[in-house]
From TrEMBL, chain B:
GO cellular component assignments: plasma membrane
Protein name, as recorded: ABC transporter permease
Lineage: Bacteria, Bacillati, Actinomycetota, Actinomycetes, Streptosporangiales
Pfam families assigned: BPD_transp_2
Domain of life, per lineage: Bacteria
InterPro entries, sorted: ABC_transp_permease (IPR001851)
Keyword set, alphabetical order: Cell membrane, Membrane, Transmembrane, Transmembrane helix
Amino acid sequence: MRPARTPGWGVASTLAAPALALLIALTVSTAVLAAVGASPSRTYLTMLEFGVRPDSLVSAVNRSAIYFFAGLAVAVSFRMNLFNIGVEGQYRFAALLAAAAGTSFDLPGPLHLAVVCLVAVLAGALWAGIAAVLKTWRGVSEVLSTLLLNYVATAVIAFLLAEVFAAGSATGSTPELPPSARLPELDGLLALLGVSLPAGAHLGGAVLGAVVLGVAVHLLLTRTLYGYDLRMSGLNPAAAHAHGIDPRRMIIITMLVSGGLAGLAGLPDLLGNTYRYGVDFPSGAGFTGIAVALLGRNSPLGIALSALLFGFLERSALILDIEGIPKEIVTIMQGVIVISVVVAHELARRMDRRRTARLVREGAPATPTAPATPAGPAA
Amino acid sequence: MRAATPRPWWRRPHVVGPVLAVVAVLLAVSMVRTLTGTEALTGSGVVGATLRLAVPIGLAGLSGLWSERAGVANLGIEGMMIIGTVCGAWAGYAYGVWAGVLAGVVGGVLAGLLHAVVTVTFGVDQVVCGVAVNILAVGVARFLCVVAFNGLPGAGATQSPPVRGTIGTISLPVLAGGWGTPDLLGRLEQTHWFLLSDAGGILRGFLHDVSWFTVVAVALVLGSVLVLWHTAFGLRLRAAGEHPAAADSLGVPVQRMRYWAVLVSGGLAGLAGSYLVTVASNVYREGQTGGRGFIGLAAMIFGNWRPAGTVGGALLFGYADALQLRQSTAVHVLILLAAVLLWMAAIVGLRRRPRLSGVMALLGMTAFAVFQTTDAVPTQLVYATPYLATLLVLVTTAQRLRMPAYVGVPYRRGGA
């Protein structure tokens, strides 16, 4: 049962938890910085100064698109109490196949781009589908199978690169994608808004895709029958089953959707930055995506905000090495944020519950309202 | 009618089954070795490497066992191991190798404390917390590595300087040639007799040049069995995982039991991490754990949340890893071994599960066809052997397992 809320209380408690988490993270990182002999205030000021430069902001936004896709992929599965921890393997596998597909045929402009994206989605879904089938067919926990499949993906990618897609290439990577398969840059759009970018900085087209997809996933979760089934399966599997929702079907579909979204996470880099897939292709976004989803409470808007925060943190950390401060402090910050946000939400939920109990005791009519926080494993 | 007398322990099903399985596997391995001439399959070299690689996996599995038996899912084992590696490498460099082992345990316990506070006290979803612990651990290790090792000789941005000193090894006298005595098993192994030499080679692998660390790990497994199944403390701890409300009503301090379990779990995971920097290698490297924490969890699941089974699972995954590392060509023979084992399983299950048997026989046939038509497993794919073996084992065992009833369920008095 959902606790009753008075208007305004829900928003406050939704925002209070992340704010508290950020505060804890700042405290911890201040303590850590002081412990290793770096000045915390100087560190934060340097980061802020560098981070808000226009080119830094653009780069942070570009980065956050990657984390947004990865976070969205994780969140869709989390909403159903499925733990897709294998986004890392899924998006790298998808990026490789997309890179290979993009160079193997030629199509006019947008069509080429669309096909490359489709291949990425299908490849990501395929890799996640393995875990879905193992779960429904043999009851293998998806937490372990998706994790182990990350390592298998590393091996398969190395094999496919060396023996199939980049065989005989001196660089060890796939050939460069033709311009028709690349994402357009959005600098013109910014210029329309009256923002001019410094030389060398470009806003990637993936950002627009992220916005569109975020809205689409929001609608999918809140306005479709599938989204209803998914949320219901996550909130109360027994009730969902009794309601006629087939859990196996939901597991398969949700893992495929999650994997498909994961497949997109490699595209901002592949189609907007490297244009080829090689052994040095950027990795790690899948794990950051888990952190982003947890911080964003599995809702598209929250994930967008936390992806922006992570992108900003990572970009502004780059200056620290020049200043002689280990930039790895940011990875600690991210970890502390994630842990404290789940704790803060649990505390907020308990407070809510106690408040409801008090209201019920005092005989106030409990008015059911829509839940302000989306349900999920972190709820 | 006579009252049923309890069967002697060696005839109980949970003893007979595994023993028969071991004998069957030994037969299959011996057959495949003789047929293909791949002596490495049961050589004491590979078995010794199996043992060395199985120790961290087994300790990680034991770590999971402690935690999950008390009802706390621990997916943060990988992260706790990472903390163990970086702490172990730091103390090992500064104060010597055994200090490193101890520091690894301390680091793991601290990480376990975090998991305990978040999951037991605050009641956060245990899987989520485990994942978060892993994310945090990677960050902490990266930061500590830069702060502690920067500028030291032999260190890099993602690597520590070498640990000082090594942990010694021991061989069993007479059987495996310790202290200058004859090496009887070694001679038996050299004869390449069917079955006898295989048994000899495997035994010698377990008894020859065994690290003292491994001896400690084996003692810890035995100690865990003793504590968890033969003391009141262990009974209470397991009660917290099987039915916390019932345990609470009988006066068991559920939360305190869960704290103990997760702290021990963290310590064992940290120990597994320090093994990687003191025995398996002598430096800390980023990404060194390579998912062993998760493989350890899989070993525990394979072992049905029991110590003996966990050790069996760890040895199995260690074997896949050892074969992959020492003789990658032998991995190809594993496909044939898989075919033989699948056929054996098909025959065993013919009467009770005919359809599954059919599927298994067919899979065995496919594996055999793959073995016949290929010459070698590509080197890049050989790397995936332990992970694939883990997945395969999960696929075959996942449905007939029984985990502690309340794993993953936070406990609050009064159900609030």
